[in-house]
Amino acid sequence: MSSARPLCVLLLMPLAACSAVDRLKGIGEAPPLSAIENPVAQPGYRPVQMPMPPLQPRATANNSLWRSGSRAFFKDQRAAQVGDLLTVRVRITDSAKIDNSTQRSRQNGENFGAEAFFGAEQQLSKILSDGVRPEALVKGSSSSSSNGAGSVKRQEQLATDIAAIVTQTLPNGNLVIEGRQEVRVNFEVRELIVAGVVRPEDIEAGNTIESTKIAQARISYGGRGQISDVQQPRYGQQALDVLLPF
User: Fold this and answer.
1) Fewest Cβ atoms closer than 10 Å to its Cβ: which of 110, 215, 219, 227?
2) pTM over 0.90
């Protein structure tokens, strides 16, 4: 395993050099925005497979304007098919605080002797060295103590809206959505990605849905550009962090 790491580093060096050349070409230029692409056509795209209930046949009634399975009497403007759009309201407010403290101490003492044992204590001088006291053969003591303390404090807040597209409809009617948003301000690009599974019933009348109602939610908010580059360690430092054992 240890011999494989240097080999991997040597193989990755040309890729890092190409990346460095591309970054050198972009000096003084604003970071480019990604082209609008079909999420289903991406190399890493995988259709979602979820446990599904058995299909129920739809009952039809003659001479009726109501269609079984419809969510409203008139045409529903909410997203329901592949390619439809809906707005996701991302509202993330997480706060966690954990404090742990542990303290432990222990003291032990042991004494053993045979001041009088049917006269046999006198025979110890023949076995042990001179000066042995039968009444104080063994004496020992030990003590130990440990203190531990730890704390975690985390607070995150994100509030924004993003339009997502329906990429797949599951057999039970649930929708798989994915949305991507890029905003460039000067030389920094902010990117927001939202994906997951939603129920059509959770989509509100304004064709919007809360991020808290997305199952298997994948929400990513980050950026790239000059500011992000400064906040990241250099490639050499990242490689040393991986390779050095200490």
Assistant:
1) 110
2) no
